[in-house]
Task: inverse folding
């Protein structure tokens, strides 16, 4: 699996806005698109993929299985429905979006069904999302760490998820950071703005460069062409050790995504 480190997220993008964002992103050079069943925009992402003058094999597409589809008999049919909406024969990566609430579907059952879907050719790789270390260990026990491409979690300067990132690193599992700009809070952060001025960059670019320097994949989203282009340019921004440490110091355990069905966080 080769997942481009900087991708385009589509959370909260609906209708024409989703089509335009993905289409513009592909025009600008994004080659990693992240969607999910619960986002309700897989069909729009698929439309943008068809409209773009980019070969399907050049675009890494991720989707995520929603909690109501995690049971062994439901997972593959739901993924086939996602493929139909996206207009593709296979996605490159499929994630369990959230662990099953109250363990209604055991992690082992969901992971086995996801591995079977990969073996059936529905997805190129599989992984997890929003799995704290304890549940990540259950997923590893079910299918082996080598079969888990990534754990996609909320990760930004104010929630650095260090225990989870360390556990994933120790297991050889890659981490993907969603909500990397903390709903835009980084834009007004004075410490980040000071670093941005030194580089003639934006606070968003500094934040993304910090995450990329740590080896995480990042999937920011935007509907504005200039922001999409600016985020993509973050890959060319190099921060020194002092600047990286300054962002490290911003961690305050501020979790922005915590639905009532979320697992127990470490």
Result:
């Amino acid at each position: 699996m080769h997942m481009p480190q900087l991708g385009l997220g589509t959370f909260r993008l609906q209708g024409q806005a989703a089509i335009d964002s993905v289409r513009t992103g592909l025009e600008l050079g994004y080659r990693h698109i992240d969607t999910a069943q619960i986002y309700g925009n897989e069909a729009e992402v698929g439309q943008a993929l068809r409209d773009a003058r980019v070969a399907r094999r050049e675009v890494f597409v991720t989707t995520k299985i929603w909690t109501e589809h995690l049971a062994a008999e439901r997972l593959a049919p739901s993924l086939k429905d996602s493929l139909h909406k996206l207009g593709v024969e296979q996605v490159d990566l499929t994630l369990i979006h959230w662990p099953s609430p109250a363990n209604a579907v055991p992690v082992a059952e969901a992971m086995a069904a996801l591995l079977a879907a990969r073996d059936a050719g529905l997805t190129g790789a599989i992984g997890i999302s929003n799995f704290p270390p304890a549940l990540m260990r259950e997923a590893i026990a079910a299918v082996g760490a080598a079969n888990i491409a990534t754990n996609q979690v909320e990760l930004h300067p104010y929630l650095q998820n260090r225990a989870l990132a360390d556990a994933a690193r120790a297991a050889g599992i890659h981490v993907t950071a969603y909500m990397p700009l903390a709903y835009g809070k980084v834009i007004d952060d004075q410490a980040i703005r000071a670093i941005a001025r030194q580089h003639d960059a934006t606070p968003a670019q500094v934040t993304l460069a910090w995450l990329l320097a740590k080896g995480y994949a990042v999937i920011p989203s935007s509907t504005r062409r200039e922001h999409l282009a600016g985020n993509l340019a973050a890959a060319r921004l190099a921060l020194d050790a002092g600047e990286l440490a300054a962002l490290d110091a911003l961690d305050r355990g501020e979790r922005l995504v915590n639905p009532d069905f979320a697992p127990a966080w470490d």
Q: What stands out?
A: The chain is about 40% helix and 15% strand. The chain has one domain: 8-186+215-227. The mean pLDDT is 97. The longest strand covers residues 123-129.
